[in-house]
Amino acid sequence: MNGNKRPLSVTILGCVYLAVGTIGFAYHFTELLAFQHDVVWEELVRLLAIICGAFMLRGHNWARWVALAWITCHVILSAFHAFSEFAVHCLFCAVIAWILFRPEAARYFRGARVEPA
After folding, report:
1. d(CA 35, CA 32)
2. Helix 61-78, helix 8-33: angle, nearest 10
3. CA angle 73, 20, 8 (to 5 degrees)
4. What pLDDT shows up at residue 35?
5. DSSP per-residue codes, 45-112
6. In the predicted model, what is the mean pLDDT of residues 78-97?
7. Residue 30: burial class (beta carbons within 10 Å; 0-12, 13-18, 19+)
8. Distance CA 51, CA 48 (A)
């Protein structure tokens, strides 16, 4: 964890990732218990969202990159569906990238640095 104050936008985004992952995981958990093969991969993706959200809140730089990769995969998958779904995922991806790579977010994820004497 770093000494920089976490930007509100990163806090909100981290909580959104936690909520989306947790709600999706809980909602589909009964399908996992029924041993439906495809659900295993979907639940792992939801766990990844939970992990990203938790570690973004803790200021880990790798978590913002994985979170961006997570939504980028959704953009790629939605390209094979309706155009409106693709457009919405593209918008989400752009907003998430903007939130995670603004200067104050970059400072937060960079963490406290000790300058050499």
Report:
1. 5
2. 60
3. 95
4. 73
5. HHHHHHHHHHHHHTT-HHHHHHHHHHHHHHHHHHTTS-HHHHHHHHHHHHHHHHHHHSHHHHHHHH--
6. 95
7. exposed
8. 5
Distance CA 114, CA 66 (A): 26
Q: Where are the domains of the chain?
A: 8-110
Cα–Cα distance list, 78 to 1, 22, 101 (Å): 34, 21, 23
- Position 39, amino acid: V
Joined together, the tokens standing for residue 97 give 């990238």
CA–CA dist 5, 17 (Å, integer): 20
Between CA 55 and CA 44 the distance in angstroms is: 16
Q: If you search the block for the tokens 């990159």, which residue do you land on?
A: 65
User: Angle, to 10 degrees, between the axis of helix 8-33 and the axis of helix 83-101?
Assistant: 130
Give the model confidence (pLDDT) of 99-114 as tens digits. Answer: 999 999 999 999 854 4
